[in-house]
Design a protein that fits this description.
The chain has about 80 residues and is α+β, with helices and mostly antiparallel strands. It is about 25% helix and about 40% strand. The protein has one domain: ACT domain (Alpha-Beta Plaits, 2-Layer Sandwich).
Length: about 80
């Protein structure tokens, strides 16, 4: 039986999250709530055909596997964010 190799990262490293939320929401609100004063880059990626949803690329320096996962789960649990990839 084959197993998938574990993700091997050297920390600290820059990590990119893809955020998808309704276009009516200001993405800076959940990002600021999660990252507080941490340096990050946030760029709009795309809008859905109907303009209802928007996606953003969020790049942030993560310091450990736990830090990377904590940011993911906190972003995912925010009420305005529909998906985090």
């Amino acid at each position: 039986m084959e197993t998938t190799p574990a993700l091997l990262l050297e920390y600290p490293c820059h990590w990119e999250y893809k955020l998808i939320l309704k276009a009516e929401h200001d993405v800076s609100i959940p990002v600021s709530a999660v990252l507080d004063q941490r340096d990050h880059q946030l760029e709009k990626s795309q809008e859905s055909k109907g303009g209802s949803y928007a996606s953003y690329a969020l790049k942030v320096l993560v310091h450990s596997d736990e830090d990377r996962k904590a940011i993911f789960h906190t972003l995912k649990s925010h009420e305005h964010i529909k998906f985090v990839l």
